[in-house]
Amino acid sequence: MGAHPSLRQLSRQRSVTRKLALQALYRWQINECPWQDLVQEFAGAEDMPRADQEYFRELLEAISRSHAALDAQLAAWIDRPPAQLDPIEHAVLLIGLYELSARPDVPYRVAINEAVSLTKRFGATDGHKYVNAVLDRAARELRSAER
Questions:
Q1: CA dist 122 to 11, 69, 74, 119, Å?
Q2: Fewer Cβ neighbours under 10 Å: the N or C end of the chain?
Q3: What's the pLDDT tens digit per position in 31-90?
Q4: Using alpha carbons only, what angle is made at residue 32 by residues 31 and 33, rounded to the nearest 5 degrees?
């Protein structure tokens, strides 16, 4: 059964992947550890069979390795130091910013919509408005050709 997943299946897989990455990055902010430990820790997560496991690994590795650079970029679009962000919003912004800057195959609207959706589900009451505004500013700069 070597068929490629449909676009809809891939979209659902990526949504589950981002949710798991959010949970892993939240955990990583609370108790920093090597990204490989997070991959192992979340390998047994209930939703992992429905996720794009390669993409999960890529998100964790890339974000953990470049979080200082991502935070420096993020600082241009936020109103406080990244360290003062709510951990959920921070994790969502790191995922969204990574996708906007390093994954041109992910349309900017998808990156923003997924981030807003995750923040609505897991973040503070109006956190999604903040995430939307920040990633919209980032997309204007990083994806100007797409707009």
A1: 19, 25, 20, 5
A2: N
A3: 999 999 999 999 999 999 999 999 999 999 999 999 999 999 999 999 999 999 999 999
A4: 115
Q: Classify residue 1: in a domain, yes or no.
A: no
**Three-class DSSP category at 85:** coil
| 92, 131 contact by CB (below 8 A) | yes
Domain containing 121 — which CATH number? 1.10.940.10
Total-model pTM: 0.94
Please answer whether residues 82 and 120 qualify as being in contact, where contact means their C-beta atoms are separated by less than 8 angstroms. Answer: no
Q: Count other Cβ atoms within 10 Å, centred on residue 134.
A: 23
Q: Residue 86 is part of which domain span?
A: 7-146
